[in-house]
TrEMBL record:
Signal peptide: none
Location of the protein in the cell: Cell membrane
Function: Iron-sulfur subunit of the cytochrome bc1 complex, an essential component of the respiratory electron transport chain required for ATP synthesis. The bc1 complex catalyzes the oxidation of menaquinol and the reduction of cytochrome c in the respiratory chain. The bc1 complex operates through a Q-cycle mechanism that couples electron transfer to generation of the proton gradient that drives ATP synthesis.
Domain Rieske: 247-337
CDD domains associated with the record: Rieske
Feature: compositional bias, Basic and acidic residues: 1-10
InterPro entries (alphabetical): QcrA_N, Rieske_2Fe-2S, Rieske_2Fe-2S_sf, Rieske_Fe-S_prot, Rieske_Fe-S_prot_C
Family statement drawn from the similarity comment of this UniProt entry: Belongs to the Rieske iron-sulfur protein family.
Protein name: Cytochrome bc1 complex Rieske iron-sulfur subunit
UniProt KW keywords: 2Fe-2S, Cell membrane, Disulfide bond, Electron transport, Iron, Iron-sulfur, Membrane, Metal-binding, Oxidoreductase, Respiratory chain, Transmembrane, Transmembrane helix, Transport
Disordered: region residues: 1-42
Length: 353
């Protein structure tokens, strides 16, 4: 007799079946591989032994406390270890003590939060399996109410309200670990302090031609010409040359004194020689285009235009401030600075008064 024939003589209820009712589907000839349903729930030791539950609670709390201590250690590392301190760590070799301390403490802080959460979920939170048939995306009011009820029940079973030790230490760990990110902001660079307000110019510093590297005399500046200068003593082989010239770069033009409109500009000049910062006040591009008939200088990046006969004020473009002027004079036949710029050079920034 064929296999099909044999099955035809056997009642459906005698075929192998899974759990009936809410636990699974009944196997039939048409569906011999039915869903067997969920296995019987097995209680954990923490579910039946309160001492075991307390041990798990203390273990979770310990993870969170260690995370807090590691975060404090992360912050303390910035104070304890200088940035140039090198240590030997096997098998890594010679590495930065600061980087090693930061990586170790932050790794422990994050690991302990994760380990504590996992141990809490596996040993103390409810692990009863809940099966629910699929339903349409648009939930009925009854379904929504059931979801909220399930959520409240799950929140109650998590023990957040009853197990205060876990809750408090978890909140402490989560509150402290973001401080690591705040401290990491310190690595964006050194604090500016007053570096944005000061340059290499000060009283008695001679103006040096940036092309010839020779001190400038008044007769070296011709009417209608544009000359670039730097402070005396600033050399191109200086390892800080580029960071310093970005603030110290100077341009000089000679204008007939009767054509200078701004009173302070006239007082800060010498025989019509005016000195202005070469750095555009928009985004810091170097200004290099001069129109001698109008006494205008143009920034090639975004076409900001400044009038050097009227206090370096902006007459066109996105720049928000006039070019800072350097007060100059002549001593022993050479041009020199009387003081630093009266205001910060370059782009506008939040401290500009």
């Amino acid at each position: 007799m064929s296999e099909t024939g044999r099955h035809a003589d056997v009642p459906e209820e005698t075929l192998p079946s899974g759990r009936d009712g809410a636990h699974g589907d009944v196997a039939t000839r048409e569906n011999p591989f039915a869903d067997p349903g969920l296995p019987p729930h097995e209680h954990r030791i923490q579910d039946i032994d309160e001492k075991a539950a307390k041990r798990s609670e203390r273990t979770v709390a310990l993870f969170f406390v260690v995370s807090m201590l590691a975060t404090i250690g992360f912050i303390a590392s910035y104070v304890i270890f200088p940035i140039d301190k090198i240590i030997y760590v096997w098998p890594l070799g010679h590495i930065s003590a600061l980087n090693f301390a930061l990586g170790l403490t932050l790794g422990v802080a994050l690991f302990c939060i994760g380990a504590g959460a996992v141990h809490w979920a596996r040993t103390l939170m409810s692990d009863v399996e809940v099966a629910q048939e699929r339903h349409p995306i648009e939930a009925e009011p009854e379904v929504k109410a059931k979801v909220m009820a399930d959520f409240r029940e799950g929140a109650a079973e998590s023990g957040m309200g009853r197990r205060k030790l876990i809750r408090n230490t978890m909140f402490g760990a989560l509150a402290l670990v973001p401080l690591s990110g705040v401290v990491l902001l310190r690595d964006l660079g050194p604090l500016p302090e007053k570096k944005l307000r000061t340059t290499g110019w000060k009283k008695g510093i001679r103006l040096v031609n940036q092309s010839t590297n020779l001190p400038l005399r008044p007769e070296d500046i011709a009417v209608g010409s544009l000359t670039f200068a730097k402070p005396e003593g600033l050399e191109e082989d200086d390892h800080e040359f580029h960071s310093k010239i970005a603030k110290d770069a100077l341009m000089l033009v000679r204008i007939q004194p009767q054509n200078i409109k701004d009173k302070q500009e006239l007082e800060w000049s010498h025989e019509g020689i005016v000195a202005y910062s070469k750095i555009c006040t928009h985004v810091g591009c170097p200004i290099s285009l001069y129109e001698q008939q109008t006494h205008h200088v143009l920034c090639p990046c975004h076409q900001s235009t400044f009038d050097l006969s009227d206090g370096g004020r902006v007459i066109f473009g996105p720049a928000g401030h006039a070019l800072p002027q350097l007060h100059i004079t002549v001593k022993d036949g050479y041009l020199e600075a009387v003081s630093d710029f009266a205001e910060p050079v370059g782009p506008s920034f939040w401290e500009r008064g």
